[in-house]
Structure formats: C-alpha cells, structure tokens
Design a protein that fits this description.
Layout: H1 3-13, H2 26-34, E1 38-42, E2 58-63, H3 71-79, E3 82-87, H4 103-109
Parallel strand pairs: 1-2, 2-3
C-alpha cells in the first residue's frame, strides 16, 4: 500500500493525527473518537471506533478494491454519519492483501 504517501498527505497537508486505537485504553478510544470531525482509516477492527463519533462525523474508509464488506457502511449509517469508501486498485481480493489507493480519490473524499 502507498501508506507513506497517504499518511504524509493527511498529517502534513491536512493536519490529521495518526492513532493506533489498539494501544489506547477503551475509555481513551471513546474520548478520542467522540470528538472526531473526520476519521480516515484502513478497513479493519480499529474502524469500529467510528461508532463513538457523532452523526456529524465523516468516515473515510480505505479498502481493498476486490473485497466487498458492508459492515462499516451499515455501522456509519446507523449512527447517521457521512460514509465514504475509497477503494484500492490492483488485484486485491482479500482484506489482508496489500493494496494502493489513488491519493486523488482520498482528496476528493475530504472535500
């Protein structure tokens, strides 16, 4: 995945703060996500924390192009959040495969 390119853009150009929720206590995860205006993350269990964010939060979910999963979409819709899925490109078919994402598509999702 072109993770470094994406992370550099999100941190240095957009002011995002990288977080690994697995390193935080549950109460810290809830406190952090409840105040989020925008959450950008790769498909996986950590994105479940978006359920603690307000309905006004935009969730930008980065996912492999060939892996269909509606769980995070449905979770965001239940909360009432603006959910945008940005799919990777290439021959990815599973959630554990490496994948790349067009940075332009992420920029569009953040408009």
């Amino acid at each position: 995945m072109n993770e470094k390119e994406i992370k550099d853009y999100l941190v240095n150009k957009m002011g995002f703060h990288p977080v690994n929720p697995g390193l935080l206590k549950f109460s810290e995860q809830v406190a952090l996500f409840k105040d989020a205006e925008v959450i950008v993350g790769i498909m996986g269990a950590a994105m479940t924390n978006a359920v603690f964010a307000n309905a006004s939060c935009r969730v930008v979910h980065l996912a492999p192009g060939g892996f269909s999963d509606t769980f995070f979409y449905l979770l965001s819709r239940i909360v009432g959040q603006d959910y945008i899925e940005v799919r990777g490109f290439g021959d990815q078919v599973g959630r554990d495969t490496g994948f790349s994402i067009n940075l332009g598509h992420i920029k569009e999702a953040l408009l």
